[in-house]
Amino acid sequence: MKLPSFWGGIHPPQNKELTVSESIVSYRPKGELVFPMSQHIGAPCAPVVAKGDRVFVGTRLGNNDAFVSAPILSSVSGTVKDVTMRLTPPGAFETCVVVEDDGKNELAPEWKPLENYQTADPKEYVKRIRDAGIVGFGGATFPTAVKLSPPPDRKIRWLIVNGVECEPYLNCDNRLMQEGTEKIVQGLALTMRLFPEAEGVIAIENNKPEAIAILKDAVAKSGLNNVTVQPLAVKYPQGAEKMLIEALTGQEFVITALPADVGCIILNVRTVYQIYSAIVEGLPAVTRVVTVTGDAVAHPKNIKAPQGTMIRELIDLCGGFKEQPVKILSGGPMMGLSMRSIDVPVVKGTSGILCLTAKSAMLKPIRACLRCGRCVEACPMGLVPTVLEPLVRARQYKRFEEEGGMNCIECGSCTYMCPANRPLTQGCRDGKASVTAMRRKAAAK
Ligand code: SF4
Ligand code: SF4
């Protein structure tokens, strides 16, 4: 049977075998934890605690009342050691709250299960989801409460749980689907109370047969007859919103629109898991599963760590490096961001830490374009990367926009396919950042 998919895309080596069978292990951090105030798309938070304050698991450390934002919560109990500038995973110094862990793991008294949650007004769920700091844990980090509040004239017909995890090397979602199955299904059931006319779809790439089987079984036992588990063709970037919508609903989705405009809401599997946890168990979303992997790591693992834990500690838990890495990425090899240091914290969007040796990083010299067209064939957005990159280098941003550069989803497919090793994705990333900065400047005038 032909499985649903999309136009374009690539088939990079999966390299998931390093951690595919590694059960999630929980880690208790040592000493201090660092919480950057900007961990989501939208308005960054401002600190609401001061040095010396006592905090608990779930205490609000940072907040912003803007609609598109999510609070930053403490993942441990202890004392605020400092509010200061610290290095963060993107390689920038940002305002952070530093908490000294007391090792007691005491939950803040305000955190309790939502009373009568099965019959409660589902609008209370949205408030709880915001208070719990829940964002898109697939890496996009868009605040979930905002996603679940579409304009009233948008009729939601599909509530899609994204378990695709098409990035090579990563297994954090795959393992969660197998180890947190019930909570994912029940989290979806609760979320569907917000959109009673919607159909629930749990989408998983067909290279995760265990997760597909266990979720199909759990859905069948749950009695939810409006939820299906849909295997998808194994092709990168199958998990991107545009590709998911096209594969599952057959609708074309323009990147400038919102999924809700075509009747869809898409939530990552961990996001749905945390929705269950916040409503039913009364727990804030302060941990996350991180796949620490790559051929430089002694014993790759899937680790559940409190947000704020230093990445160096997770690598130590894996036995450290067996060979010196030449490249360390936050995320997978396709969309991950190069890291300057491992002395930075796990944040809401940290899905993986990928440590590559010279052999697997394949650092090759950049050569002149061969006009082979492989980048054009690979681009799932129908762009012409070989035209876009030189436009950015020449600072021709207007032409970059006219050529559709802002539609680039930074998936990395073009760079992966380029035999001349041209930094095509980086070019588009830089172009988009420059255009966005220019638009902001123009709007501020
Ligand atoms: S141009 Fe952008 S969307 Fe197209 S393949 Fe390259 S990174 Fe992906
Ligand atoms: S894949 Fe590389 S070499 Fe081929 S056309 Fe694109 S930029 Fe040029």
What would you say this structure looks like, in words?
The chain is of the alpha/beta class. Among the domains are: 122-281, Rossmann fold (3-Layer(aba) Sandwich); 374-444, no CATH class. It has 14 helices and 17 strands. The protein has helices at residues 122-131, 144-147, 172-179, 181-192, 209-222, 241-249, 269-281, 311-317, 358-361, 374-378, 385-393, 397-402, 413-417, 424-444; strands spanning 24-26, 32-36, 46-47, 54-55, 60-63, 72-73, 78-87, 93-101, 158-162, 199-205, 227-232, 264-268, 287-293, 301-306, 327-330, 337-338, 352-356. The strands form 4 sheets. Strands 1-14-13-17-15-16 form a 6-stranded mixed β-sheet. A 4-stranded antiparallel β-sheet has the order 2-8-7-4, with no helix packed on it. Strands 11-10-9-12 form a 4-stranded parallel β-sheet, sandwiched between helices. α3 runs parallel beside α5 (209-222). The model has no long low-confidence stretch (mean pLDDT 94). The structure holds iron/sulfur cluster (SF4) (2 copies). One iron/sulfur cluster (SF4) is lined by residues 378-379, 381, 383, 385, 408-414, 424-425, 428. Belongs to the 4Fe4S bacterial-type ferredoxin family. RnfC subfamily. Its main location: membrane. Part of a membrane-bound complex that couples electron transfer with translocation of ions across the membrane. Pfam families: Complex1_51K, Fer4_9, RnfC_N, SLBB.
